[in-house]
Amino acid sequence: MHALLIGINDYSNLGVGGLCGSVADVCRVKEFLVNRLHVPEAHIRTLLDKEATQDGIISSVKGLADLDTINMGDPILIFYAGHGGTLPKPPELSWAVNNSNIECLVAHDARYNDAEETWVEGVVPDLFFASLLHRLAEVKGDNITVVLDCCHSGSGAR
Q1: At CA 49, angle to CA 104 and CA 117, rounded to 5?
Q2: How does pLDDT run across 22-37, given as a tens digit for each residue?
Q3: Single pTM value for the model
Q4: DSSP 6-24
Protein backbone atom coordinates (compact mmCIF):
# COMPACT_ATOMS: atom_id res chain seq x y z
CA MET A 1 0.00 0.00 0.00
CA HIS A 2 1.02 3.58 -0.65
CA ALA A 3 -0.55 6.71 0.78
CA LEU A 4 -0.62 10.44 0.26
CA LEU A 5 -1.82 12.20 3.42
CA ILE A 6 -2.61 15.92 3.30
CA GLY A 7 -3.57 17.96 6.36
CA ILE A 8 -3.95 21.72 6.63
CA ASN A 9 -4.67 23.59 9.86
CA ASP A 10 -2.86 26.83 9.08
CA TYR A 11 -3.45 28.76 5.87
CA SER A 12 -1.07 31.43 4.58
CA ASN A 13 -3.85 33.89 3.82
CA LEU A 14 -5.28 35.45 6.95
CA GLY A 15 -8.67 35.60 5.24
CA VAL A 16 -8.86 31.80 5.26
CA GLY A 17 -9.82 30.61 8.71
CA GLY A 18 -7.59 28.06 10.33
CA LEU A 19 -8.63 24.62 11.49
CA CYS A 20 -7.56 22.69 14.57
CA GLY A 21 -7.95 19.00 13.77
CA SER A 22 -6.75 18.39 10.21
CA VAL A 23 -3.08 17.78 10.98
CA ALA A 24 -3.99 15.61 13.96
CA ASP A 25 -6.29 13.55 11.72
CA VAL A 26 -3.46 12.99 9.23
CA CYS A 27 -1.13 11.95 12.05
CA ARG A 28 -3.72 9.45 13.30
CA VAL A 29 -4.25 8.00 9.83
CA LYS A 30 -0.48 7.65 9.37
CA GLU A 31 -0.16 5.99 12.76
CA PHE A 32 -2.93 3.54 11.83
CA LEU A 33 -1.29 2.73 8.48
CA VAL A 34 2.13 2.15 10.03
CA ASN A 35 1.19 0.45 13.30
CA ARG A 36 -1.94 -1.52 12.36
CA LEU A 37 -1.57 -2.15 8.63
CA HIS A 38 2.26 -2.28 8.67
CA VAL A 39 2.64 0.08 5.72
CA PRO A 40 6.31 1.08 5.46
CA GLU A 41 6.80 4.76 6.27
CA ALA A 42 8.70 5.08 2.99
CA HIS A 43 5.39 4.35 1.23
CA ILE A 44 3.63 7.27 2.92
CA ARG A 45 3.99 10.84 1.67
CA THR A 46 2.70 13.46 4.11
CA LEU A 47 1.98 17.11 3.30
CA LEU A 48 1.22 19.27 6.33
CA ASP A 49 0.30 22.95 6.40
CA LYS A 50 2.83 24.96 4.35
CA GLU A 51 3.86 21.87 2.35
CA ALA A 52 0.26 21.46 1.17
CA THR A 53 0.25 24.23 -1.42
CA GLN A 54 -1.68 23.97 -4.66
CA ASP A 55 1.50 22.97 -6.48
CA GLY A 56 2.51 20.58 -3.70
CA ILE A 57 -0.82 18.76 -3.76
CA ILE A 58 -0.93 18.52 -7.55
CA SER A 59 2.69 17.40 -7.92
CA SER A 60 2.29 14.81 -5.14
CA VAL A 61 -0.77 13.23 -6.74
CA LYS A 62 0.97 13.26 -10.13
CA GLY A 63 4.08 11.81 -8.49
CA LEU A 64 2.22 8.72 -7.34
CA ALA A 65 1.87 7.69 -10.98
CA ASP A 66 5.64 7.90 -11.43
CA LEU A 67 6.67 5.86 -8.37
CA ASP A 68 8.41 2.63 -9.33
CA THR A 69 7.50 1.14 -5.95
CA ILE A 70 3.79 1.19 -6.83
CA ASN A 71 2.85 -1.74 -9.05
CA MET A 72 -0.30 -2.04 -11.13
CA GLY A 73 -3.16 -2.81 -8.76
CA ASP A 74 -1.39 -1.89 -5.52
CA PRO A 75 -3.71 -0.12 -3.08
CA ILE A 76 -3.32 3.66 -2.92
CA LEU A 77 -4.89 5.90 -0.28
CA ILE A 78 -5.25 9.65 -0.73
CA PHE A 79 -6.49 11.39 2.43
CA TYR A 80 -7.19 15.13 2.51
CA ALA A 81 -8.19 17.02 5.66
CA GLY A 82 -8.65 20.77 5.35
CA HIS A 83 -10.98 23.34 3.87
CA GLY A 84 -13.10 22.64 0.84
CA GLY A 85 -14.86 25.32 -1.15
CA THR A 86 -16.85 26.25 -4.20
CA LEU A 87 -16.07 28.54 -7.08
CA PRO A 88 -17.79 29.52 -10.31
CA LYS A 89 -17.48 27.10 -13.18
CA PRO A 90 -14.89 28.53 -15.59
CA PRO A 91 -16.93 30.00 -18.48
CA GLU A 92 -14.33 29.09 -21.09
CA LEU A 93 -14.58 25.40 -20.24
CA SER A 94 -17.48 23.13 -21.05
CA TRP A 95 -17.28 21.19 -17.79
CA ALA A 96 -20.34 19.05 -17.33
CA VAL A 97 -21.74 20.16 -14.01
CA ASN A 98 -25.33 20.53 -12.90
CA ASN A 99 -25.02 24.11 -11.71
CA SER A 100 -22.85 27.18 -12.08
CA ASN A 101 -20.40 26.18 -9.33
CA ILE A 102 -17.71 23.56 -8.97
CA GLU A 103 -16.13 22.31 -5.78
CA CYS A 104 -12.47 22.47 -4.81
CA LEU A 105 -9.85 21.53 -2.27
CA VAL A 106 -8.44 24.63 -0.59
CA ALA A 107 -4.64 24.49 -0.42
CA HIS A 108 -2.40 26.22 2.13
CA ASP A 109 -1.67 29.08 -0.30
CA ALA A 110 -5.30 29.72 -1.20
CA ARG A 111 -6.55 33.25 -1.52
CA TYR A 112 -10.18 34.28 -1.23
CA ASN A 113 -11.49 37.48 -2.80
CA ASP A 114 -14.13 38.83 -0.42
CA ALA A 115 -15.37 41.43 -2.91
CA GLU A 116 -16.07 38.80 -5.56
CA GLU A 117 -16.89 36.10 -3.00
CA THR A 118 -14.74 33.48 -4.70
CA TRP A 119 -11.40 31.71 -4.54
CA VAL A 120 -8.89 33.31 -6.88
CA GLU A 121 -5.86 31.03 -6.44
CA GLY A 122 -4.47 28.14 -4.43
CA VAL A 123 -7.30 25.68 -4.99
CA VAL A 124 -7.59 22.31 -6.73
CA PRO A 125 -10.89 22.18 -8.66
CA ASP A 126 -12.84 18.92 -8.47
CA LEU A 127 -12.69 18.14 -12.17
CA PHE A 128 -8.94 18.76 -12.26
CA PHE A 129 -8.47 16.54 -9.21
CA ALA A 130 -10.58 13.89 -10.95
CA SER A 131 -8.34 14.09 -14.02
CA LEU A 132 -5.28 13.51 -11.81
CA LEU A 133 -6.97 10.45 -10.32
CA HIS A 134 -7.95 9.20 -13.78
CA ARG A 135 -4.33 9.40 -14.94
CA LEU A 136 -3.17 7.66 -11.77
CA ALA A 137 -5.71 4.86 -12.35
CA GLU A 138 -4.57 4.43 -15.94
CA VAL A 139 -0.96 4.00 -14.84
CA LYS A 140 -1.31 2.14 -11.51
CA GLY A 141 -4.80 0.62 -11.62
CA ASP A 142 -8.03 1.64 -9.99
CA ASN A 143 -7.36 0.32 -6.48
CA ILE A 144 -7.48 3.91 -5.20
CA THR A 145 -9.32 5.11 -2.12
CA VAL A 146 -9.87 8.85 -1.72
CA VAL A 147 -11.06 10.31 1.58
CA LEU A 148 -11.91 14.01 1.55
CA ASP A 149 -12.45 15.28 5.08
CA CYS A 150 -13.66 18.74 4.10
CA CYS A 151 -16.72 20.78 3.22
CA HIS A 152 -17.98 20.73 -0.35
CA SER A 153 -16.47 17.32 -1.06
CA GLY A 154 -19.48 15.77 -2.79
CA SER A 155 -17.99 16.00 -6.27
CA GLY A 156 -14.38 16.01 -5.11
CA ALA A 157 -13.30 13.05 -7.18
CA ARG A 158 -16.13 13.07 -9.78
Answers
A1: 35
A2: 999 999 999 999 999 9
A3: 0.91
A4: EE-S--SSTTS---SSHHH
